[in-house]
């Protein structure tokens, strides 16, 4: 005697060797003997042989019409053998009974299992819904197959082009577009990015980087809803100063300006004037919600996405020729010793006499002219000379606290694109110019802002008003700058505490801090009761968390797109050789461009070694530079500079390789149509 039994959803058949009350010993065709519970035995038969029964049953199951079988099935529970006799004939033998068992088991949308060998037909509505789902799945499988074939042949179907960035970076792995790309990559044995590029889905490397950034950070677009700049209700007094700002010509969000009064009197007052959108914009207002969503202006060569709409920016920016609302910090100093004797914060209107521009004056306003060694023929020469003297004094004092000097070993670079004033397309001619870090005008502005941010940070703490602080526990390797709501030393700056409060048109943290500073200016010792944000306010922590993520993403994009334009400059100028300094692990830094990359052959060279490398390839899509060592220029020049640099290797690393969210392990042959 033979038996057909259910082994965890798999049907096996063999010879019955022995039988007890509740189990059987069955020998399979392989010779293996298994113990089977009697309840799992579904069919006993004398012929044919077990293997023949299974093979014949599977073959005849393929010909069973499920719709007809469903019609024949009774309403209640039934056994497969009973339905076989109703469907085939009253004399249906073991092979036909096995065929019906196999067919019922593989059609749960028609027949529900009600026990071992027992079934119950599904309601008609369930069957119809299941059949529709099967049909949709079959159609989807056919669509995936068609798209995959098209992609592998070098053409990109429009639905995949429309979903390009979602497929690559934030995919729904059940979506047919994603499955088609994975299947086409598997079938053609090509990387998904190469496949899509060759199929025409990626036509412009610049647009690829730009639209990827928008997809990740501005999925609803970077336009603004209709917004008007709120009016400042305060009657602000007019300051008795003539202030000047120092920015690049492209700067439209002029946040800060300086003034100097009392020169020659023995007591000089430095005014640090910050644009005051916080006097008009209120927390949770429509403009605030937009600023809080964006958190910062995004900068890139030739273009920017501002934190605030242009109309709002223009209402509060410190444009020359206007009396602009400002939060002003007045620092009174002994003219001889530069010792601070008093500080005061005022809310006022400040006359902006001039907007000085770096790119127009950096070559004119030199250290020699500021120190009297050369003729100073430019606006505000006496005031700038005092500011420069003070800036060097403040920097030296901070360096004492830091324990080592601040070194500006590497220049900054400015990017200018042809056709300025319109959104770049990626094919513009780019010009890259060098600007030495720590130039006199840079030093004047940076030291004034550090003075304001550290002074206001201490004032907030003194009045018990929370703010958003930046701190760094030490200058030890790996100790990073952190943000928090309590004052703490900033080792990198060399100050007791440090806020961001001097760029409220460009950074949301600065706007938040400005609200707190305004409360202090208005209410003094009772400011903690009136400030918008109280100690341990959860909103401050959420702002810090959101800002950290957004600011890192924006900076990452800026670095990547500057790398793109640097590589474009190499192509446009036909540059194939670069002089560079070795860093570590084969990384080198170009001497005259903002470019860090790996060069084959540089791995064993000591840090600081000057080399000449040959650029052998550029990939504007992945931003990879392929280069190799051409010759070693010397072994020592630059080594001291590299050793003394304050910049960590993390900051020196090139842009990360393009990371896709496509997993080729998801590849599987599309299901056959039912």
UniProtKB/TrEMBL annotation:
What superkingdom heads the lineage? Bacteria
Q: What is this protein called?
A: RNB domain-containing ribonuclease
Q: Which GO terms describe its molecular function?
A: RNA binding; RNA nuclease activity
Q: Where is this region: Disordered?
A: 638-674
| Chain intervals with Acidic residues compositional bias | 643-653
Task: Show where the RNB domain sits.
Answer: 235-523
Please name the source species.
Ideonella alba
Top-down, what is the taxonomic lineage of the species of origin?
Answer: Bacteria, Pseudomonadati, Pseudomonadota, Betaproteobacteria, Burkholderiales
* A GO-annotated cellular component: cytosol
Task: Indicate, by first and last residue, each region the UniProt record lists as having compositional bias (Low complexity).
Answer: 654-664
The record ties this protein, via InterPro entries, to:
NA-bd_OB-fold, RNase_II/R, RNR_Ribonuclease
